[in-house]
Amino acid sequence: VNGQDQGRGDAVPGYVRKIFDNNPVKDVKSADMTCNRNKGVNTKTISVKGGDKVTITWAHNNKGDEVIADSHKGPVQVYMAPGTTGKGNVWVKIASKGFENGKWATDELRQNKGQHSFTIPPLSPGDYLVRPEIVALHEGSKQGGAQLYMACVQVKVTGSGTKTLPAGLSFPGAYSATDPGIMFNVYDKPMKKYTPPGGPVKTI
Fold first, then answer.
1. Which residues constitute the domain of residue 112?
2. What is the pLDDT of residues 114-139, one digit of tens each?
C-alpha cells in the first residue's frame, strides 16, 4: 500500500483468503468464481483509504517464482465489493487492462515480476473485499477453455471518503462461457479487437 510491503497475505494469520492450489477455475458458473477454492475467511485485514495505491503481487507458488507462463495471454482486472461475503450483485470493476499497444496485460504482469497496481476509490469506511483476477486465454478459442485465476483480499477502508459502491455483478453469474471476453482466440491473424469480460471500469 503506497509502496509499503504488507507482508505475505496468504499466511495464517493473513489478509488474503488462502487458496488450496494454483489450478485455474474453468467453470464460470462455479461458486469458486467468487474467491477461488479457498480455506475461508482469514484473520486479518489491511487498512486502506481512498486514493491509496495498492499493488498486488502474483506468484506461481511463492514470491519470486515465475508468475505465469508466457503462453498465458489475457486481461488483468480488479473488482471490489462491500462487506465480507462477496455474495450477490456486489462486485464492481475498479481496474482493468486487456490488450493495449500490442501487449497483453499478462505480458506486462510478467515484466513487472508479478505486480500490478490500482487506486482505491474514495469509499466510505468499512470492510470490503478486493478481487484481483487474471483470465488466461491460450485455450480460449473453445468453450470452457479459458483459465481464470482470482483471490479475495480483505481490506478495511478508513478515512473520510463518502462514496458507496454502485450495484455490481455477481460471481458466479457475471461471466458466460461464450462471452467474447472469455471465449476468444488469441492466435487469430489478424487478431480481433478484444474487450475484457465484465463491462467497463466504474467511475466512483
1. 31-158
2. 999 999 999 999 999 999 999 999 99
Q: What is the mean pLDDT of residues 98-113?
A: 96
Q: What is the CATH number of the domain that holds 126?
A: 2.70.50.70
d(CA 73, CA 70): 7
- The pLDDT tens digits of the residues spanning 45-61 come to 999 999 999 999 998 77
DSSP conformation class of 203: P
Say which residues have a Cβ less than 8 Å from residue 150's Cβ, sequence separation at least 6: 25, 33, 35, 36, 131, 132, 133, 134
Distance CA 172, CA 131 (A): 13
In a domain, 204, yes or no: no
- State the pTM of this model: 0.96
Nearest CA-CA partner of 109 in 75, 147, 142:
75
133 falls within a domain? yes
Domain count, the chain: 1
